[in-house]
Amino acid sequence: MARRGRYEKTYEPKETLSPWARAATMLVAFVGMVAFAVVLARLTLEPSAASEALTHSNFTPGDSIGEYLEQPAFRDTVKQLGGNILLGVPFGLLLPVILPRTRGLVRVGVATALTMVLVELAQGAFVTGRTFDIDDVILNTAGALLGYLVLGRRLGRAVHPRRHHWWHRFTRRNATDV
User: Fold this and answer.
1) How many domains does the chain have?
2) Would the pTM of this model clear 0.85, i.e. be above it?
3) Can you tell me the mean pLDDT for 2-10?
4) Dist CA 124 CA 132 (whole Å)
5) Could you give the dihedral angle defined by the CA atoms of residues 55, 59, 60 and 64, in that order, rounded to the nearest 10 degrees?
6) Is residue 11 part of a domain?
7) Is 72 exposed, middle or buried (0-12, 13-18, 19+ CB in 10 A)?
8) Is residue 85 part of a domain?
9) Can you name the residues that pair with 133 across neighbouring β-strands?
10) From residue 150, how far is each of 7, 91, 103, 105 by CA, in Å?
11) Which residues touch 11 (CB under 8 Å, ≥6 apart)?
12) pLDDT for the residue numbered 48
């Protein structure tokens, strides 16, 4: 029996979901994303007249995070930092299921960052008592990356199996080539 080298692997496709199961999973993910969008809008785009005098824009990464960490009330720190991280997790879970082209750590991060920058710009421009904060974008993106690494990657691969491009014919070896 010939010994296979380190790079000589055979391609064995994984079982994929049936078309109905894929459609159902994508529908559930889409409904989840719509529900998340409603929650996101309610949390970030509602006016807050009471905090109008306390708000200021933050374009320097780390400033708001430093202020949160210096607060004497640990509960408020956890609420601010943890809440912003948790707000990004659904992106990491649902984007790879709904949009197969967003699979990948960098793609999920970029899509989340762009979306959150738009939300923050809308907040700062149109909502009373709310401002743009780059640290919110950073924390939301970190949450999306965490969600992708924990479960989103597996969900995306279960619904959308890996594609094998034409060049894989030349770069992969079969068991008969040994």
Assistant:
1) 1
2) no
3) 53
4) 5
5) 30
6) no
7) exposed
8) yes
9) 58
10) 28, 12, 13, 11
11) 164, 168, 172, 174
12) 67
